[in-house]
Protein: Probable thymidylate kinase
Amino acid sequence: MYIVFEGIDGAGKSTQIQLLKQWLEDNGFRVETLVEPTDSEVGKLIRKILQRPDATTDNVQKTLGLLFAADRMLIMDKLEDKSKIIISDRSFISSLAYQEPVDWIEVLNKYAKKPDLLVLLDLDVKKSVARTSGEDTFENEEFLIGVKDNYLKLAKNYTSEIIDANNGVNKVSSDIKKVIAPYLGICPDCIQ
Ligand SMILES: Nc1ncnc2c1ncn2[C@@H]1O[C@H](COP(=O)(O)OP(=O)(O)OP(=O)(O)O)[C@@H](O)[C@H]1O
Ligand SMILES: Cc1cn([C@H]2C[C@H](O)[C@@H](COP(=O)(O)O)O2)c(=O)[nH]c1=O
Structure:
C-alpha cells in the first residue's frame, strides 16, 4: 500500500509519519518511509533553488516543476514494493498544489504513481508560517494561502482523508490512526 502525506509547510507530516510508522510496526506491518524532494543530486539542487528569492516566479516555478518530476522518477521503483507499506512525505500532488500551470504539471507527472491513500494534514497558514524557519521562499503567508486552497480541491480527486492539523501532536496522531485503521483491517478498538 502506498500512503502519501501532504500539506503545507510545517503541517506536521514528518512528525506524524514517524508516529504512524512506529504504530504500524507495533501492529506487525513492514513499513518504509520516503521523502520528496529526495536526497539525490536532483533533490539537492531543488533544495538550493527553493531558497532563491525568486523561487515563486513563473520561470523558476516551471524549472522546479521539471526538477521535482525528475527527482520523483528516481524513486518510482521503490513504490512498487508490495511487501511493505510505503509512506511518503509528499508526492506529485505537492507539485500540483505548489507549481503551475496545472495542465503542464500533470503531463510532467503522467508516469508518477497515484497513492492508494492520500492523508492531507490541513493546517492554518498563520500556524504554518510560525512553525517554519522562513528559509525557503515558499514559506510565506500569501503563497501558502493559495497552496492550502489547492490541496483542499485536489483531495477530492483521490481516495483521501483530511485531518485537522491544528490540534496537538497526540490528537492529530490518534485522528490519523482512526482513519487509516479501516484501510489496513486494524480493529478500531485496538487503537491507543
Ligand atoms: N501538532 C503540532 N502542534 C505543534 N507543533 C507541531 C505539531 N506537529 C509538528 N509540530 C512542529 O512543527 C514543526 C514542523 O513539523 P514537521 O517537520 O513534522 O512538519 P512538516 O509538515 O514535515 O514540515 P515541512 O513541510 O516544512 O517539512 C516542527 O518543529 C514540529 O515539532
Ligand atoms: C515534492 C514537492 C515539494 N515542493 C515544496 C514544498 C516545500 O515547500 C518544499 C519541500 O520541503 P519540505 O521539507 O517538505 O518543507 O518543496 C514543491 O513545491 N513541489 C513538489 O513537488
User: Anything to note?
Assistant: The CA atoms of residues 8 and 148 lie 6 Å apart. The two ends are 22 Å apart (CA to CA). The pocket of LXEULUCI (ligand 2) is lined by residues 9, 36-37, 50, 68, 90, 94-95, 98-99, 136, 138 (CB under 6 Å). The chain is about 45% helix and 15% strand.
